[in-house]
Automatic annotation (TrEMBL):
Residues 6-80 form the S1-like domain. Gene3D superfamilies: Nucleic acid-binding proteins. Belongs to the eIF-1A family. This is Translation initiation factor 1A. The gene is eif1a. InterPro entries: NA-bd_OB-fold (IPR012340), RNA-binding_domain_S1_IF1 (IPR006196), TIF_eIF-1A (IPR001253), TIF_eIF-1A_CS (IPR018104). GO terms for molecular function: RNA binding; translation initiation factor activity. Seems to be required for maximal rate of protein biosynthesis. Enhances ribosome dissociation into subunits and stabilizes the binding of the initiator Met-tRNA(I) to 40 S ribosomal subunits. HAMAP family: aIF_1A.
Length: 94
């Protein structure tokens, strides 16, 4: 039993992505997120994710902030609960 026995390789943020926690469901495929950089943003769930992936309050997601409007972002990835726990253990998120 190695210490990395339960560890999975998780998708990490690209240069323009940040970790975020979903704080509020706004409807119309939008969620309120608190990003790791301390900014609250309104994030849009893109069409390719809407039907396949359910996003709920408290989920850890990756968002890509918009270049031209920093208070908005697109959700690019959602982590499962076990993956979010692993990210916390490894110190990537609080």
């Amino acid at each position: 039993m190695g210490e990395n026995e339960g560890r999975r390789d998780l998708r990490m943020p690209d240069d323009d992505e940040v970790f975020a926690e979903v704080t509020n469901m706004l409807g119309a495929n939008r969620v309120r997120v608190r990003c790791a950089d301390g900014v609250e943003r309104t994030a849009r769930i893109p069409g390719r994710m809407q039907k396949r992936i359910w996003i709920r309050e408290g989920d850890i997601v990756l968002v890509e902030p918009w270049d031209w409007q920093d208070e908005k972002a697109d959700v690019t990835w959602r982590y499962e609960k076990s993956e979010a726990d692993q990210l916390r253990e490894e110190g990537h998120i609080r």
